[in-house]
Amino acid sequence: MIRAKNLRQGILQKGLALALTTVLALGALAGCGTYENAEGSSASGGQISNQSNQSSGSGAAGGEVITNSGDKVVKIAISADPEFTFDAIGDSLMVTNGLLREGLTRYGDGVLVDGLAESYEHNEDYTKWTFHLRESGWSNGEPVTADDWVYAIGAMLDGTAQLSYADFLYEIKNAREVYTGKKDVSELGVIAQDEKTLVFELAYPVTYFPYLITHPMHFGYDREFTQKVGVENIGTEAEYSISNGPFYVDSWEHDNLLVFKKNPYYWNKDNIAIDQVNVYVIPNQATQVNLFLNGELDVVDFAYQRLSAIENAGFTAQTYNNGRTAYLNYNEANAFLKNKYVRQAISAAIDRDAIVNGVLHVGSVADGLIPVGLAGDGKKTFREIVGSNLPYVYDVAKAKELLQKGLDELGLSSPSDISFTILATNTDEFIAVTGAIQQLLQDNLGIKVDVETTDSSALRTRRNAYEYDVLLQSWGADWDDATNFLGGYERQADANPALFINADFNAKYHDATYSTDLTERIRLLGDAEAILLEEEGITPLYYTGQYYAVSKRLEGVLRRAVVPYLDLYFAVVK
Description:
Layout lengths: L3 H10 L21 E4 L34 E6 L12 H10 L4 E3 L4 E3 L2 E6 L5 E6 L13 H11 L17 H5 L10 E5 L2 E5 L7 H4 L10 H7 L17 E7 L3 E6 L13 E6 L3 H9 L5 E4 L4 H6 L5 E13 L9 H9 L3 H9 L3 E2 L16 H5 L9 H15 L8 E7 L2 H18 L2 E7 L1 H9 L5 E7 L6 H4 L16 H12 L3 H17 L3 E13 L3 E2 L1 E4 L5 E2 L4 E2 L1
Parallel strand pairs: 2-11, 15-16, 15-17
Antiparallel strand pairs: 1-20, 3-4, 5-6, 6-8, 7-8, 9-10, 10-11, 12-18, 13-17, 13-18, 14-18, 19-22, 20-21
Helix pairs in contact: 1-10, 9-12, 16-17
């Protein structure tokens, strides 16, 4: 057996722990129930000016740093230009959408609070939820009404507007049928009872519905404005964007700078302490860090390799749980990986502690698919209730025993007969992790492992076409509930053979879906997770984490593992 300390040294000596300069720049599709209030400390050097419209010379992509004298301006960065579409899917959108749009409920400082709904109630079996809207306005002065939700959700499901994940809405009565063309949108279970009363009729009990609707796919959109500018144009330019949240898009220089200003019609505008947010589009995280050190950004995410630079500049480095689990996903149509013993052997041959502490230096070892901190029954978290569900932890002897069972079933004589390729995005994080896994599997099992990395767009195309052997990927909950992790594995027998399909898993997940006993429901979801991992449908590796820093001029920044990941709602410029 290889000891973790020696293995970590070997990994580092072989150069696998590369600089993580592009790790998860300000968010990734994530969600979970851990929150932190961030207060940074000052940098030695960089100075923020509120008197000049020009940057100090190292500004974002050559653009202007717009700072109005006397205004309370905050400057942040995102990695790519957003489009504020209906469903708001994407890393950059998950940051900026918190400025622009608000749902019926939202997250406060660690707890779920009322958003555009001032109150709500449900029926006895959680299949009908009624929301009472506040007096609030869109950024064009039009009132927020119940019809905004009837229109927006209907437009996504009937094909009028873009929709990335239809199943995110399938809890709504007739949503699946509307999306597949079997029913008219008028039969959708989203009803404007009157201008300020919105009713959701659901297809099954959803005890966690107030958490689910914090995701932008459950937000409203102004019907008249959208139809006027055109659904195809919505959110593509400043003049085609509209806000019902605390800020609106005042100007937009694509791939460079978005300027958000306070929405004068927002219900809680008097308690928003920031006048303006400048959002720079900066793909390179090293550039983001340099701008932060120069005082031209107020918040920055960074990798472990930049920790000393941040601290030497006088900042307090902080970390937060960003609610993601990194794991291996298998193509079960593969001649070798279709065998569960081979997959189990892979899990037992991976030293997760070496990866977390020898390569990443942030995050924690996974003991299941559902990450730490994710909500449970309201009293305890999912992991506190369920405990560890990882059956095959690092044990080289066990790994070899499992592999031999796989070889026998496959009719193979030697571990070297097994070969496959691990596919991952070409971030430094995943390059380092795939390199470590490659070494572990070859050293501990004697199988042949290749690594291929590519950009996220190409990987998505290949994943959707099942053109892979093993994927290294990560997932975070879009809402604070285990269903967002486990729901995608409830598949019928006629699903693509590349996918994990298991009738026992389906039965447990179904029972959990219809349970209204909160604790029983979590235990049933835990049983479903146990089946998924015992069969090694996937191999969880680690719960991701993120380093970040905040300038001393800014207080009240919240970092969390549900949308929005960077929350300036409570921020104050000193």
